[in-house]
Amino acid sequence: MSILDWILIVIIPGWLLIGIIGIVFPYRPHLIYGLLFPSGAVLGVLLAVCALSGIVAAPQTRVLSLGLPDLPFHLRLDTLSSFFLFLLGAASTGISIYAGGYFRRGKGAIPGLLCLLYHVFLVSMVCVMLTDDGYAFMIAWETMALSSFFLVTSDHRIAEIRRAGYLYLLIAHIGAVGILLSFGLMAGNAGDYTFDAMRRFPEDGIWPAVAFLLALFGFGAKAGILPLHVWLPEAHPAAPSPVSAIMSGVMLKTAIYGLLRVSFDLLHAKYWWWGLLLLLIGLATAVFGVIFSAVQTDMKRLLAYSSIENIGIILTGIGLTLIFKSFALPHLAALALTATLYHCLNHAYFKSLLFLCTGTVLHATGERNLGRLGGLMRSMPRVAWLALVGMLAAAGLPPLNGFVSEWLMLQSFLFTSGLPQGYLHMLLPVSAAAFALVAALSGFAMVKFFGIIFLGQPREENLLHAHDAGRHELLGLLWFAVGCVLLGLFPNLVIAMLDPVTRLLLGSGLREAVAANGWWLLAPISQDRASYSAATFFVSLALFIPFVFVVVRRFFHGNLDLYGNVKRVPAWDCGFPSQTARMQDTAEGFSQPIRRVFSSFLRHTRQHPSPFDTNPVYRGSVEDPFWKWLYQPIVRLVEYGTNIVAFLQHGRIAIYLLYSFITLLALLMLTNG
After folding, report:
1. How many Å apart are CA 590 and CA 374, to the nearest integer?
2. Partners of 421 in beta bridges
3. How many whole angstroms separate alpha carbon 94 and alpha carbon 92?
4. Which residues in 309-323 are b (16+ Cβ under 10 Å) and which e?
5. 215: how many CB neighbours lie within 10 A of its CB?
6. Which of 162, 243, 440, 482 has the most crowded CB, counting CB atoms within 10 A?
7. pLDDT number for residue 317
8. Three-class SS of 604-672
């Protein structure tokens, strides 16, 4: 069988069969969580293996007679879809393993229904990446939206969760309208809905730009770009943590896949201003997301805004790629696209790891508020160490994976001297500075995330009894932590895997350039300009840290007593002999500098206690300004329109006859005139 046949005959039916078994035996938790979810993880591994083979294989196509008469489903597996299928398979493996332990202890939906919805969600994402016509794509896209909506609202008894789910579904459908109009415009001339017909869309005139803007709007709504991001920080806290992980790690990337497919494959990416638009929107999204991530007090909302930031980084990379491609700079275009795809893969790993860690913390403590957490490294050491790996990767620190893609992206900004446009030479250094600011603030937000949750003293008594991760949860976390390390240590191998994708979309790649320096040294342009060795950095850390420990222990005699034993003394208490957990830094206090610097942008409200309050409580909240600037005026406009309609629609037959009579008179007057 071909690779595509394996996916169509084994993986997709296998996931659907798992979901059907779950709904047939809805109240068998041992069957569902002990067998079905791990079986789904095995199919995830198989999908990753098949997709990895598909990256280097020739494109494969199929026509399935599953649609309407004369509207069959067209499927295609090429290098672009194979890469995103690999991302889906790799991420779903760890999440499915983790979900078997997480949902076993969770509350909410019926176990069998949850199993069905989860695996239908996975199948719908596979179909999105395999479809080769607009009709099948929209069916798969809407199936993905509906299944994820029901997963988000699995605990639908809570009104806040229902509101978050409805907001997500509303924006998802508004975005779907944009995608449908883009496909309709590209297929209009040929009268054919297949992607092959859309590839023959005329490249001149205004209509390619209109199709691109519609696609950007549609896929941007799903990805969470400004100002269509408002559903994301609401849906992620509402959803169960495995669902948040699969949505942030994979579902957002289906929008990136669609944008790449339309921009580079169907429309051939001819205009440089498309790239400039994506660059500006991406940087604005990244800066907005990282600022709001740094000031959050809810750990899942913090990670949700961090996902907005990373989507902005990915969109920035696509914008750079479009600019370089339009000015015939193939090597720089390949560098920017490689960084973009690399960051898609990295974000899927470290963000899934962090969301799953928050799920374990939530189950162990029942708290999402950072103000009620702290000191969990003592009671949850395994989760803490694995979360530390995800935090360092998300902060972009070497030698982990987040650093490599951000370093490559920064190189794309720095090597832009060949651009013929003068104002781009002025804009790109400013953009590089904004990108550096995003990277710095991302590190700040991640340090806050880890430090407030795991370090210090417990802020609540129940935290002393928090339990560590179970077996299934630990295996899922370990899967992503190992991936973060391997993707960071072997960047040249990852770039070699990405090379066929960049060659499909751009006609050029980086494989030869990076292979010339060996597996251990990454030099995307030339060794004289910039280079990075993850292996050298890792070995240096592995040798330096034990060396410093031994030196301090053996030769720093201030810590040894007369007999050579280590002296253990209380830490300096700053003159306060009776410290409590209330004296340590809080989430609000940690981010206070960011609140002050961006106070004109943040809608920050404070509740100060009275000086005479015997039990003082301080509360602060930050609101998204787009609610006030954009969405509330739209709501008022819709309410005004509905009031007019309600006024006209009284429900009285006499009023409706009067409307008909007035309409008839108006038509007669127009006819006579």
Report:
1. 13
2. none
3. 6
4. bbbbbbbbbbbbbbb
5. 25
6. 243
7. 94
8. EEEECCCCCCCCCCCEEEEECHHHHHHHHHHHHHHHHHHHHHHHHCCCCHHHHHHHHHHHHHHHHHHHH
Residue type for 218, please?
A: G
Give me the amino acid identity at 343.
Answer: H
Q: Residue 398's CB: how many other CB atoms inside 10 A?
A: 18
Residue 314 and residue 257: Cα distance in Å, rounded?
11
The H or E element spanning position 63 is strand 60-68
Least confident range of 198-207, 241-250, 572-581, 664-673: 572-581
Residue 564, class by beta-carbon neighbours within 10 Å (0-12 exposed, 13-18 middle, 19+ buried)? exposed
Q: Kindly state the percentage of the chain with pLDDT values over 90.
A: 46
Q: Centre a 10 Å sphere on the Cβ of residue 638 and count the other Cβ atoms it contains.
A: 10
β-strand pairing of 71-77 with 60-68:
antiparallel
Which residues are within 8 A (CB) of 51 and not within 5 positions of it... i.e. 6 or more apart?
3, 82, 83, 85, 86, 88, 89
Q: Rounded distance, CA 202 to CA 192, Å?
A: 14
512-523 in b/e burial notation, b at 16+ Cβ within 10 A? ebbeebeeebbb
The string of pLDDT tens digits covering residues 601-624 is 776 666 666 666 666 666 667 777
Sign of the alpha-carbon dihedral angle for 370, 621, 446, 626: positive
- Helix-helix angle 12-24:37-55, to 10 degrees: 170
CA atoms within 13 A on the CB side of 419: 26
Helices 534-555 and 471-489: angle between axes, nearest 10 degrees: 110
Chain-centroid distance of CA 591 in Å reads 23
| Neighbouring residues of 111: CB distance < 8 A, sequence distance ≥ 6 | 22, 26, 27, 28, 29, 32, 33, 103
- CA 312 to CA 437: how far, in whole Å? 13
pTM above 0.70, yes or no: yes
Q: What is the pLDDT of residues 355-393, one digit of tens each?
A: 999 999 988 888 888 888 888 888 899 999 999 999 999
Q: At what angle do helices 252-260 and 79-105 cross, to 10 degrees?
A: 170
Closest CA to 310 of 386, 211, 396, 426: 396
Q: Is 326 in a helix, a strand, or coil?
A: helix
Q: How confident is the model at residue 107 (pLDDT cuts 50, 70, 90)?
A: low
Dihedral of the alpha carbons of 282, 286, 292, 296, in degrees to the nearest 10: 130
pLDDT, tens only, 444-474: 999 999 999 998 888 887 777 788 888 889 9
Report d(CA 373, CA 384) in Å as an integer.
13
Question: What value does the mean pLDDT of the chain take?
Answer: 86
Q: Determine if the peptide bond prior to 546 is cis (ω within 30°).
A: no
Rg (CA), the chain: 27
Q: Residue 563 corresponds to which amino acid?
A: Y
Of 127, 145, 147, which is closest to residue 137 (Cα–Cα)? 127
Higher pLDDT, 113 or 550: 113
Tens digit of each residue's pLDDT (9 = 90 or more) over 211-256: 999 999 999 999 999 889 999 998 888 888 999 999 999 999 999 9
Contact of 360 with 383, CB cutoff 8 Å: yes
Closest CA to 100 of 43, 47, 45, 32: 32
